[in-house]
Design brief:
mainly alpha; disordered C terminus
């Protein structure tokens, strides 16, 4: 499981959610995180000894490129970027440290479990990650919104972010188990393609659920004129 940062994150238009921008973002993420790594891995794997980690390491460059492009467009680092960067660093670290390709793929599949566990810990200690993600999204560039958001949380809306964080944590743990099974039973090249696609689908489903759940339980403050 991988928590993906879309390669092109656009702000929604004043009228609401921009579905076209969301579709472009998902497509860009699938291309950079799934299709391009798969094609490069398939091209390089026959050129290296069996179980060499180098084709996987080279294929990992595309998610790094996607992250850098997203950072260049946004001109900063936010909570989602930190989670995405953590996922990339975990992938690179376990790939370099793994004794062979099969073990590298299994260890990479544990990324979701690591991030999911961190989310559950943040909820357990009363610092749910989704609260900080929502705070940054709602109040970005509008100081007046920050005060309204904090007042909303003080009135008890923080529980919604607590629940959302727990659901994300459990979802990532569950999907990590699925990824481990796929890493064991699928051919290496197939896993390189299927794993990030499944990761993007999981992220989209969790994002859609959490947006609906949070909006049902909180009142997002309007911008201060």
């Amino acid at each position: 499981m991988q928590v993906h940062e879309p390669a092109d994150q656009e702000r929604p238009p004043p009228g609401g959610f921009d579905h076209a921008a969301a579709r472009r973002s998902i497509l860009a993420s699938l291309i950079l995180n799934a299709l391009c790594p798969y094609l490069l891995f398939r091209a390089l794997e026959p050129r290296f000894p069996a179980e060499s980690i180098l084709p996987l390491l080279y294929a990992s460059l595309f998610p790094v490129i996607g992250f850098l492009l997203a950072r260049r467009r946004k001109h900063g680092v936010d909570a989602i970027a930190v989670i995405a960067l953590a996922g990339i660093l975990i992938h690179l670290a376990v790939t370099v440290l793994a004794p062979n390709l099969s073990m590298a793929l299994v260890l990479r599949a544990l990324e979701g479990a690591i991030i999911g566990a961190c989310l559950l810990v943040s909820a357990a200690i009363g610092r749910p990650v989704m609260l900080y993600v929502a705070r940054q999204f709602v109040s970005a560039g509008v100081p007046g919104k920050r005060a309204g958001f904090e007042a909303m949380v003080a009135r008890g809306a923080g529980r919604a972010f607590h629940v959302a964080t727990i659901v994300w944590g459990c979802g990532l743990l569950l999907m990590s188990a699925v990824h481990v099974a796929l890493a064991i039973y699928l051919p290496h090249a197939d896993f390189v393609l299927v794993s990030p696609v499944l990761g993007v689908v999981t992220d989209v489903l969790l994002l859609a659920w959490s947006a609906r759940y949070i909006l049902r339980h909180v009142s997002v403050p309007r911008a201060t004129q």
